[in-house]
Amino acid sequence: MQKHMTSLVSKIRFYSSKNLPMVSKLSHTEHCCKILVVGGGCGGCSVAARLAKVLYKHDIIIVEPRDVHVFKPAFTLIGAGISQLRDVTRPMLQVLPDNAIWVKDSVEHFCPADNMVILESGATVEYEFMVISVGLEPNFNGRKQLNDVTIVYANANDSLFPVDLYEDAVHRIAEKLNVCVQFGVNLVKIIPENNKAIFACTSAPENTTCLKYSFLHVSTPMKPPKALKKSKDILDNRKFVDVDERTLQHRKFMNVFALGDCASLPTSKTASAISVQSYVVFKNIMNAMEGNDIEPIYDGYTASPIFTGYDSLMLAEFDYSKEPKPTFPFNIDKDKAWLFHLQCKVMPHIYWNHMLKGTWDGPEKFRKIFRLEFLKRRKEDAYLGCK
Ligand SMILES: Cc1cc2nc3c(=O)[nH]c(=O)nc-3n(C[C@H](O)[C@H](O)[C@H](O)COP(=O)(O)OP(=O)(O)OC[C@H]3O[C@@H](n4cnc5c(N)ncnc54)[C@H](O)[C@@H]3O)c2cc1C
User: Fold this and answer.
1) Superkingdom, according to UniProt (predicted)?
2) According to the model, what pLDDT value does residue 324 have?
């Protein structure tokens, strides 16, 4: 691997922009950089900030079309009436690192074999390394537009959560809140004028049921942005950027890395996961640039906050093994008020001030401290119990 990377780096360095093929007859700009970051969302910003600390200004180009950066994890709070949209957005210029160049454009086509992308404007960007973090888009076409106080949670999957401990906990919470949970049903049509939702049975789609609602909350299926869909050679068969799940390096193009929602990582797609992934991408790009081995260090850590009320939340943290990986090692399958406040008050602070600035590697340090404290206390309790 190391040998391959070193030869790849020297091959790329050998390419000057003049050696690369012309891709368009339009008069357009040709940008050239050491590292191209595609997407200025959660993953792109956080990797770019880390790299910007150790590279020169003209080394990093970030391609991002939007003027505004959105703190997506707060969408749930907006939906619940706890936050307002204006509280969860910042101008893009404010969140991108100073020590990098922002090209306000969209990638239209990825050409990884030529170490280049073509932008919507016709401009091109050549790179030595590329980081892709373009997220996913809601697929509104995935749903056709078309009682009392009972809450029905209808779910196409056959479980509520991929981790047994949290699955049991969520079932208990649903029971306590009188939420009727239905599995294996897929929302296929909404008839808003009659407040009706039609569900197809996942095992036999011809069997449908109709549910009348007074309030409907739908989480839409997601799809990759169109630029990815056009660039099949970087995707896996599920249309995610095909990277190694431990190194986050592309399986075919060794100078390409991906993280976040668009990456083919078999873990829950969250900002918490990105906090660790951005460190891994940074570390492995540095390894590649310095001719060191790429390190298989991502364990799939992710964290899903499960709101259970206006003052309670359960935090489900786990990794690829689907075993819990709690930061706070006590009553991890219980919802608590302090976790609710952590999510609403502390997480936004961490996001804006640390994650986007590349100084938040996830909660591992805290996990170690809390675990040591916890073990110490257990030993003390056991000692007192013996006395
Ligand atoms: C409702 C909701 C609630 C959530 N709650 C939580 C939570 O509580 N905790 C948690 O940890 N996570 C949560 N998440 C998940 C978290 O927000 C995402 O995992 C995270 O934002 C993904 O970051 P990303 O960088 O992969 O993509 P994004 O943040 O979506 O950024 C992608 C960026 O790429 C840009 N882009 C797209 N196409 C192109 C292109 N062709 N060229 C250039 N740029 C492009 C976009 O403009 C965008 O800025 C939630 C998500 C949602 C939707």
Assistant:
1) Eukaryota
2) 94
User: What is the pLDDT, as a whole number, of residue 170?
Assistant: 93
For 211, the 3-state DSSP assignment is strand
Closest CA to 101 of 42, 39, 33, 53: 33
Token readout for 68 is 């505004």
Closest atom of ligand 1 to 260 CA is 26
Q: Is the CB of 306 under 6 A from ligand 1?
A: no
- Candidates 122, 126, 134; CA nearest to 42 is 134
94: Cβ–Cβ under 8 A, 6 or more apart, which residues? 69
**Residue 164 CB coordination number (10 Å):** 13
Q: Where are the domains of the chain?
A: 2-137+223-289, 140-212, 302-386
Q: Quick count: other Cβ atoms within 10 Å of Cβ 120?
A: 13
End-to-end CA distance of the chain, in Å? 57
The pTM (predicted TM-score) of the whole model is 0.88
Name the residue at shortest CA distance from atom 35 of ligand 1. Answer: 39
CA nearest to 58, candidates 117, 109, 102: 102
Query: What is the model's pLDDT at position 6?
Result: 34
Residue reference for tokens 């896996």: 236
> Is the model's pLDDT at 29 over the cut of 70?
yes
Q: Which two tokens stand for residue 273?
A: 């996961």
Residue 72 Cα, ligand 1 centroid: separation in angstroms? Answer: 6
**pLDDT averaged over the chain?**
88
